[in-house]
Design a protein that fits this description.
Elements (H helix, E strand, L loop, with lengths): L13 H15 L12 E2 L17 E2 L10 E7 L4 E8 L2 E9 L10 E6 L5 E6 L7 E6 L4 E7 L4 E6 L5 E6 L10 E6 L4 E7 L4 E6 L5 E6 L4 E6 L4 E7 L6 E4 L16 H4 L12 E6 L5 E6 L4 E6 L4 E7 L4 E6 L5 E6 L4 E6 L5 E6 L5 E6 L5 E6 L7 E7 L4 E8 L3 E6 L3
Antiparallel strand pairs: 1-2, 3-4, 3-31, 4-5, 6-7, 7-8, 8-9, 10-11, 11-12, 12-13, 14-15, 15-16, 16-17, 17-18, 19-20, 20-21, 21-22, 23-24, 24-25, 25-26, 27-28, 28-29, 29-30
């Protein structure tokens, strides 16, 4: 994967200095301490358009950050070093509790990419991207990180999710290193680890997510500008949605299959790191996230740095939300109030009000190449994986979704990707 160098540090603009003085003055005559939690504080105003790069974009703060009253645990996989790290975060801070190996090859990384926890919390599943004829899905016992099953899937298995009933694991075959042809979504019977279906969808599917009832599966087609919906009972594509700005359209059935020469002129974009060329309005979608009630699907347009919101019932565009540079992965709180987006090129995480579409905060991360997001069951914290660049360690940042700020960070193995939060 190619990475871009860090941009030069911007010069301090006079308008930013004025705003800083205004903020200090406002703090001196602000509300009494007992009123602080009752009134959201506006931290910044918008700067003139020519100073857009200076805007912090941290717009509101509703509650102060406080240490957690109990411990949370998450797992993250690191693609370059074949590791699974278990992270604990509690009253005393964050730490890596344990690191376990994943894969079989001793001479070449197996490339763990996605991780998905079973609904009962007893097992979790890890997709490994490399291998012949395809990559694999591994099953691990949560109690001791012991591998208890494995099945070979298609080329470069990536994002994975377990169905709400725990019976199936859905995995997209991203096919990163193969020809630009129609790829697929694999369905694995979770108990015996048998692939029972491989559903053709589109070119380079990513962001495998099911609705809360488990009746519909969604994935984004990075090279086809589409969202694909699968009927999870029939194991077949039900609808697809074209995402390019100004050409949005929902259609029934599966998209047409692509041959090896269909995308000869399409730049893969460094897997989400290449910004658009002037005049390029393409989406290059990398993630699909259904709302908890199943009425909406949000799609991350990595190329245009937008989030497309689609109404499921009418299969039509609701709105386009401006996100951070290179928005990549999405996660939504269980109550449906907050939408979290990782900005892969922007070294930040955006938090949106899911109802109004307003961006509440844009929070800097500790490393570049921001990747995955997972939210705790109580909707309090978001765990964010950051790949880093070159040989530097990856990190997992922990964001307080009430205070809208980063409250902890830990280092893990290089190229951290998939992340999920364990049950209590």
């Amino acid at each position: 994967m190619q990475h871009r160098a860090a941009p030069p540090r911007p010069r301090v603009h006079p308008a930013a200095a004025v705003l800083a003085l205004v903020a200090i003055a406002a703090a001196a005559c602000g509300p009494r301490p007992e009123e602080a939690e009752l009134r959201p504080r506006i931290l910044t105003e918008s700067l003139p358009p020519d100073t857009a790069e200076l805007r912090p974009r941290i717009l509101t703060e509703s509650l102060p950050a406080e240490p957690p009253a109990r411990e949370y645990r998450a797992i993250v996989v690191s693609e370059s070093v074949d590791e699974i790290a278990r992270i604990a975060f509690g009253p005393s801070g964050a730490r890596v509790e344990k690191v376990a190996p994943v894969g079989m090859s001793l001479i070449d990384p197996d490339g763990p990419h996605g991780v998905a926890l079973a609904p009962d919390g007893q097992h979790y599943y890890v997709s490994t991207a490399h291998g012949l004829p395809g990559g694999s899905l591994w099953k691990y016992r949560t109690a001791n990180d012991e591998p208890v099953g494995r099945v070979v899937l298609g080329p470069f298995p990536a994002t994975a999710q377990v169905s709400p009933d725990g019976f199936f694991v859905w995995v997209v075959n991203f096919n990163l290193h193969g020809d630009m042809v129609t790829s697929s979504v694999s369905v694995v019977e979770a108990r015996e680890m048998l692939e029972i279906a491989r559903i053709p969808t589109c070119t380079m599917p990513h962001g495998s997510r099911l609705n809360a009832s488990g009746t519909r599966h969604y994935s984004a087609c990075m090279m086809d500008e589409m969202l694909v919906e699968i009927d999870a009972a029939r194991f077949e594509v039900a609808r697809h949605f074209f995402l390019t700005a100004g050409k949005e359209m929902g259609m029934a059935g599966a998209p047409p299959r692509r041959g090896a020469d269909a995308h000869a002129g399409h730049d893969m974009g460094g897997h989400g790191m290449e910004p658009p060329a002037p005049g390029d309005v393409s989406c290059s979608p990398t993630w699909a996230q259904p709302s908890p009630d199943g009425s909406r699907v949000w799609v991350a347009c990595n190329k245009s740095s937008e989030i497309v919101e689609i109404d499921v019932a009418s299969w039509s565009l609701v709105r386009r939300l401006r996100a951070g540079d290179g928005v990549y992965n999405l996660a939504v709180t269980n109550d449906g109030r907050r939408l979290v987006a990782t900005n892969k090129r922007g070294q930040s995480v955006s938090v949106f009000d899911a109802v109004s579409g307003r961006e509440l905060a844009r929070i800097p991360t500790t490393r570049r190449v921001v990747h995955g997001a997972a939210i705790s069951a109580d909707d309090r914290y978001a765990f964010i994986s950051n790949e880093g660049v070159g040989s530097e360690k990856s990190t997992v940042d922990i964001i307080d979704l009430r205070a809208l700020r980063r409250v902890a960070s830990v280092e893990v193995g290089q190229q951290a990707g998939g992340v999920d939060v364990l049950k209590d």
